[in-house]
Amino acid sequence: MTLDWTPPTFETERLVLRPIVPADAPAIFVYASNPAVTRFTLFETHQTIDDSRWFTNDYVRSRYANREPDPFGIVLKADPFRNVIGAVGVHWAARPNLVMEFGYSLAEPYWGRGLIVEAAGPVIQYVFEEYALERLQAQVFVGNDASERVLQKLGFTREGVLRSLVERRGRRWDIIMYSLLRAEWEQRQTPGRPA
User: Fold this and answer.
1) 64 near 7, Cβ under 8 Å?
2) Who contacts 194 (Cβ-Cβ below 8 Å, separation ≥6)?
């Protein structure tokens, strides 16, 4: 797969965030085939390696072709094999209205370590600096308390519950909407402002 554009690579204290490539399919299958990981995701549990290949080829190609930074593969710096343990990304939700959607997933063995908050920092900075973006939003399934805590740590505001918004896995789900506005993000970037 050759693409005209891919998102940049970022490094944090513990992580490398890089474009997803087709060779990542086996590592993605390891976590995306875990029902605990996909319990609160809009994507279904990967049943076969072909599901992960579709993600690393078709999904990634469509997003990168549209110059959307979705997904970044999350890799631990300490992993000599550089296997992807999750993904974080931002895509257009309503381009004419300057609204993008933020999402993430992480392999279960790495939960509770603050890795998504760490990975999100440079991605959020990148989209506010590089895109004509007014609103960055994230949707959380009701009951996904850990994901709500992530968004709160990132400075997102809980706006409310969209009742019975999603049909998933044989039932209707309420979705909690979070957002971070450009003005809020810019205020947090002001030098000398207390955290």
Assistant:
1) yes
2) none
